[in-house]
Amino acid sequence: MGEAEISTQTAVALDGITKRFPGVVANRDIHLSVAKGHIHAIVGENGAGKSTLMKILYGMQRPDEGEIRIDGTPVSFHTPGDAIAAGIGMVHQHFMLADNLTVLENVVLGSEPRRGGLALDFAAARKKIKEISDAYGLDVDPDVLVEDIGVGARQRVEILKVLYRGARILILDEPTAVLVPHEVDELFENLHGLVREGITIIFISHHLDEVLKVADAITVIRRGTTVASVDPKSVTARQLAELMVGSELPSPETRESTVTDTVALEVSGLTMGNDGGRLLLEDISFTIHKGEVLGIAGVEGNGQAELVEAIMGIRASTGAVRLSGADIGDWSTLRRREAGIGYIPEDRQRHGLLLLAPLWENRILGHNSGGIWIDRKGARADTQRIVEQYDVRTPGIDVDAAALSGGNQQKLIVGREMSGDPVLLIASHPTRGVDVGAQAAIWDHLRSARAAGLAVLLISADLDELIGLSDTLKVLLRGKIVADVDPANVTPEQLGSAMTGAGEDA
After folding, report:
1. What does the domain layout of the chain look like in residue ranges?
2. Rounded Cα distance, 95 and 165, in Å
3. Predicted structure pTM score
4. Which top-rank group of organisms is this from (predicted)?
């Protein structure tokens, strides 16, 4: 089949898709047509309806109205198994891999090949995995443990998993969120390899420059409905942002200095090991002044989480941690919080919220030190203030946190952690998985707090965010600070190179 013939066929068609939930219409008369053998991007704000639409296409939810057609044939999916049987696979933003299993074991999990209906046929699985890996240029070793491979390789394993199950249509949810620039380039090469073999890709992302670089077509969703389908060659990132949110593409750029001489946080010789004796952090030292943002750049898994846990008192470490001159090494996490440390965790749903609790209860999460008594009236009033000040879009403060979109969950956490005039804010991936509108709002709040004297420790996989917001920037590699770079002069490519250790022996 020739390339021209592939491009004229429709792999996925969604016509008039509508999905209602109590009090909200998540999707309203959605229309989407995805050409076979193309990369079709879907962009829109958090809460615009992208996730609901993809859950419908993947059989996780059923539409109230409308029709789905795969290769021209109407289908009705009741479960993800139905979608998989129809050739649809989904790679989620948060990888679903077991670290203690091999690549092969992860790939075949739930679809184990059997000999004679009983014994597991790992030889057949290994052969099939190698064939798929070679055919699509995925470069995956089936016998290595997942815990021993990097983020980019893990993502290729996730893609291989769905191809192993026969997927010809791939849904990729925020596939570049945790990748450094060279890994993004490698991913795009892999995607183009898939497309050349006739695979169709639906690509969901908040990174508009990446969407414009990789997509063959773009559909914009706003407030639950499709508002435009555009050719990436004829639109700019700024125009795409205006279609999404009705405003200019935001920039994290911050150049006016607000750094004072007053030290807010001093870390000296911070070291942490694991049970096996391996050092997770080695001799980490730095200071953060009031009005300063110190950025930490690094590929995930190089000690960022351990650094945060050490400063928060969650995990034991050696060395000294001083907050406003006071040695807090022996303090509990609660006492550190009470002394003025705000904390935006990297995983908002696992560590930042009680998803099945109302917003006002989440407001006091980690901040209620008044014994058994809860100031319900005060908590409700302050939650309402956060909702208004941080533009948390919600029907009310009594709805569960799970009912909010990811961006609105994040704005609630940011508002909570900036309440009470903290001395230090630890912000781990503060805008991960949020749309450009929520991202711009969070950047504005961080800049305002910085100008008012807040010290910020910023950890992010978004290199533009790190470069734009940071006054000082350090690179963390294998648990050690290996470089100090000037945010005013460094490029994302140079920073990405330092993060991976490229040229460190030169």
Report:
1. 3-245, 260-339+462-506
2. 17
3. 0.63
4. Bacteria
